[in-house]
Amino acid sequence: MKKYLFLGVSLFNFTLYVSMRSIWSGIEGMFGIHILQFIFLFIVTALFLLALIQNHLKMNKIIQSILLGFSIFLTIALFYMFYLGIDSLRYFVRAFIDLLFVMLVAYFAYFMIFKFPSCKLSKNRLYKRILFSVFSLLLFVITFDLDFHFITNKPVVYAVEDTYQIVWTTSTHATAQVMVGDTTYYDLYAGSERSETTIHKVVVPMAELDEAKSYKISSTHVLYRGPYSGILGGRVEATFNFKPVDLTDGLNYYTISDTHTRNQAAIKAGSYFGDDLDFLILAGDIMNHIENAEDAEVILALAYGVTKGERPVIYARGNHEVKGTYANQLHRYVGSVDEKFFYTFQLNHVYGIVLDLGEDHDDSWWEYYNTAYYTQYRNDQTGFIQDIIDSNVFLDPSIEYRIGVCHIPVVLVEDDYLDAILNEWTPLLNQLNLNVMISGHKHQLLAFTTNIPTGVEFSYHENYRSNTVVGYRTNANFTNFIASRRSLIQSPSTKENLFGRVFTGLATSVSFTSRIASFQFTNSQGEIVSVIDPYDGTLHSSYEISLD
Questions:
Q1: What are the tens digits of pLDDT across the range 385-413?
Q2: Chosen CATH of 151-241 out of 1.10.10.60, 2.40.50.1070, 2.60.40.1930, 2.60.40.10
Q3: Which pTM does this prediction carry?
Q4: DSSP 410-459
């Protein structure tokens, strides 16, 4: 009995630990020992192998009891790790199921090679015919990429510079076209249609879609793409209405950030304006990290859940979205320019700039294992901002509202690694006459207003959080809002809901007649959340900023 229990526990420990590889670095961070995570891997692997071959070893009952007891102790320790990393449950479960499937396949192969020839089933004709038919069918489906062809993620319309980047996904490899009026636009690579992909991104002129107010997406499954011939499969199409930003009745936009894979409550919060929404801002960390296409598609699902493909979306990359084996494909799923995540946009008479501070530590931080070069990436953006200033485009008298978006706050210096760059950016951004800057990252509901003294350290007011030194505010001439947290209230003493069942984001309404922009935090229950000002301790149901 003990040997089967030992086998079951050791198998579970091995599978669970390998499934939690996305948080192995937390072991190093907790104990400061780089090799410790691999020592744990060696231990759970060795115990699993011992359990597999224990029948071939002369193992007495005392040793077997010690190994079983140690394995149970490891199970408890792993469950504690699992609890600490519960925010990554999505990755754990997926990896756990994948690994179990691999093990089942491996056991099936072992059974077919070593056990099947000697069992009764090998002499049953019906069983052998069914088995052969199943394998033949699977081989045929895999060889010819046969699958049902349908749209898996409906389109999201990202606003980037003077274009819309329309993104959707399909169940099979396919081409992609967008029809706007009588003109068709394609997802092209160097002159030919992309087809070996399920993610589709088509760029259309902003002015044309604004005028047409509708578009049709189309994807054709490519069964075979040879050098001189090919075979096309089915086509899927869908038409969507589109509402361009219209400032005649004011401006309404909503900001969501730091959902960390949890969409449901964020979609409820982001639907605060209903049909009166003009555009949506996703201010980063929609994912914990991006390991595959399915992870990147969570961003599409959130954006579509709020906009239904009918409103523009502004995307700023979060520091968690630079992580993962598939993170270098993120530019295909969101608004980007030349595979980078800083750009401008202009929606009607709303002008915006999106910036990207990258990771939230210095390039030499141990988690990046000598692969981070964000210092140069940030420096490139300094030149980018300067080019905007030199162009004078932001001074166009038709512009009625100016907004900046960056996941990590740009007016607050908390870490030395950002000290120089934020103080370099601030005087440049001041020249853009921004009405507001929108950020996330801190999982709090805060407004760093121009009332906060600049250049000197300050602490959060005791009404908000007692005796906590924040850092210092740069000499910015605009307010920087921190948009979201997974909670119904602001209080930092209330922990965020790890499963994202509740959410609060930032609703902004702008009146161009009264020349006032009003900012209110609203939650997934449709309630306005009153917040304490982090500096002066006053309670606000809304913040109002003059446009003049």
A1: 999 999 999 889 999 999 999 999 999 99
A2: 2.60.40.10
A3: 0.90
A4: SSEE-SHHHHHHHHHHHHHHHTTT-SEEEE-SS-S-EEE-TTSPBSSEEE
